[in-house]
Amino acid sequence: MEPKDFVRAVAGRLRALRAATGLSQRQLAERAGMQICEISRIETLARSPTLHTLSRLAGGLGLRLEDMLNTDEDPKLTVLLGRLRRATPEQQHQALQRVLAEVNRAK
Length: 107
Hints:
The protein is mainly alpha-helical. The protein contains seven helices and no strands. The mean pLDDT is 92.
């Protein structure tokens, strides 16, 4: 993938993940300790983010950097998995039980 294509993919991924978490640019900026204009510039391809900036954005989204950059994965799934990683073992167990119940109900 060409660098320009990667930056475009990251910008789209950032927008999609921000939407999947229900955050506005302002809310993400506050969580990531950034200015709203920085996020806007990245999402509109006016600025290429540094690795440090991407790391801060991932943290603001509650994700690992590698998950944020995985452009092949559905953003909603990425957000869900990120929340599961931060959950307690009991919360993870409860979530798994709910998922299994839904799968069985869908059969």
